[in-house]
Structure formats: structure tokens, C-alpha cells
Amino acid sequence: xxxxxxxxxxxxxxxxxxxxxxxxxxxxxxLVNSAKEGxxxxxxxxxxxxxxxxxxxxxxxVVGPKxxxxxxxxxxxxxxxxxxxxxxxxxxxxxxPRVRSADAESEVPxxxxxxxxxxxxxxxxxxxxxxxxxxxxxDQHHDRSTRGQQREPxxxxxxx
Length: 160
Fold this sequence. Notes:
By secondary structure, the chain is an alpha+beta fold. The protein contains four helices and two strands; from the N terminus they run ααββαα. Helix 2 (22-63) packs antiparallel against helix 3 (111-117). The two termini are 33 Å apart.
């Protein structure tokens, strides 16, 4: 038998007295969902700002400060171009700076953009999250799908 403290009993009695109407509970549920969506949007927005600043800082390192003449520079600014980065598990459109070699022969890649343009920038498999779920296999203890593979003799299928 489980022992229940006096505080737990008092809280359960108060909860019974404070039962909210179903419409209020529904509205509160919508509010929680909106807050979650808003938090993700805020996080992605902040992340985009950080990525943009990191890219511009790298351009300054490669090319030099904007508006300063430097006859020995090896690269020059070459405007901006649209691209995509991975933030919040989603692909997001960004304007990325372009840098070309001083002789205009080739594009100079930016490490920051390459890192965030990668589908899995932190190497944790986040780009593949949900793939095994789409294949009907739990992500919890599996590192790849087993759909279509032969079962070992003697193993029984999980009950559904």
C-alpha cells in the first residue's frame, strides 16, 4: 500500500475544487502550443542573426574590414547570394556573403556557411531524425531501419 502525505491529499482536494471548464482547458492547451511554436520561431530567428554575424565576421577575417584599402589582400567581397542553412532541425533560407579571390579566378568558400549548410551541422544524426519513424521503427534503440530485412531464426515479431 502506498503512503500519501498530508500535502498531497490537500493538493488533490484543492484540484477538485479548482477544476477548469473544458473550454478553458482547450484554450490553455492552444496557448501552450502557441508558446512552443513561438519559442521555436524566436530561437530560429536568433540563430539566423548569429549565423549572419558569424559569416560577416569570417568575411572580415578573409578579406579585411569593409571600406579599408589593402593592396596585399588575397580575396574580395562579391555581394550576397541566397542559400540554405539548417536551424532548429529545418532548412532555412539565408542571404550568404560571397567572397572571390583577388584575381577573380575562383570563389573562396566560407567555413561558417559550409558548416551550417550541412544537413547535419553538429554530427548528431539530427538530419535523419524521423527517418526510422517513417519506416515504422522506433528511434529509441535503433540506429537504422530493419524494414525488409530477414528476421533471425527463432525471433518472434513484436505484438501490435
